[in-house]
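Appendix B, Record 12. Input sequence as logged:
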Amino acid sequence: MKKTETYASVWDAIADTPEQAANLRARAELMQQIAAIVKESGWTQTEAATRCGVTQPRMNDLLRGRVSRFSLDALVNIATAIGRRVHVELEAA
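Logged structural output:
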């Protein structure tokens, strides 16, 4: 019988290291916040893409949560393009 492993989060389950899991988690959180801004603003994907400085297919990837297609740098740039400031905070593990 195979032992079932449990993880604190889905990111811990799919990442090879705690560092990778933390990076995935941070990117996912930024993507969710950007997607919420797009939704609250009532922008179409094309309008959101223009405002964010990306293509419409790229905006579609963001809104669909395709985390692997975005770096933290790219997400910070997108947030800045729509007038947001990214704040990073460290917590004890």
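Residues 18-41 form the longest helix (24 residues).
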